[in-house]
Amino acid sequence: MIIEELIHQLQSYPKNIRVIVQGYEDGFDEVSTLKAISIQPNTSHEWYNGKYIKSNNAASETAVLIFGTGRLREFNE
User: Fold this and answer.
1) Which structural domain range is residue 67 located in?
2) Measured between alpha carbons, how far is residue 28 from residues 15, 70, 75 in Å?
3) Are the CB atoms for 60 and 38 separated by under 8 Å?
4) Most exposed residue of 22, 42, 44, 45, measured as fewest CB within 10 angstroms of its CB?
5) Assessment of whether the complete model's pTM goes beyond 0.85
6) H helix intervals, 14-68
7) Which residues contact 56 (CB under 8 A, 6 or more apart)?
């Protein structure tokens, strides 16, 4: 995905929500997908885990998760 495409997709979300990426692993991929998810702080995380975790709590925060090529499949498993 190029910057113009990313900006266009981000414009469909409210301007005040957090943007997150999946953390830790090797290599780089292009951005392929954006998805709104509910998150909450990860209060017991190790350095190699992310600061946030997926949440089903109604009071959780909404964030836009940016996926690299191939990562959406892993997220939905």
Assistant:
1) 3-76
2) 26, 11, 17
3) yes
4) 44
5) no
6) none
7) 38
20-45 burial, b for 16+ CB within 10 Å, e for fewer?
A: eeeeeeeeeeebeebeeebbeeeeee
Task: Calculate what percentage of the chain has a pLDDT beyond 90.
Answer: 52
Distances 2 to 6, 9, 35 between C-alpha atoms, Å: 6, 11, 17
> Which one is predicted more confidently, 58 or 34?
34
Looking at the 3D structure of the chain, how many domains does it have? 1
How far, in Å, CA of 3 to CA of 9, rounded? 10
pLDDT digits (tens, 9 = 90+) for 42-55: 988 788 888 999 99
What gap in Å lies between CA 65 and CA 44, rounded to an integer? Answer: 21
List b or e across 50-63, with b for residues whose CB sees 16 or more CB atoms inside 10 angstroms. eebeebeeeebeeb
pLDDT tops 90 at residue 61: yes
> In one letter, which amino acid is 19?
V
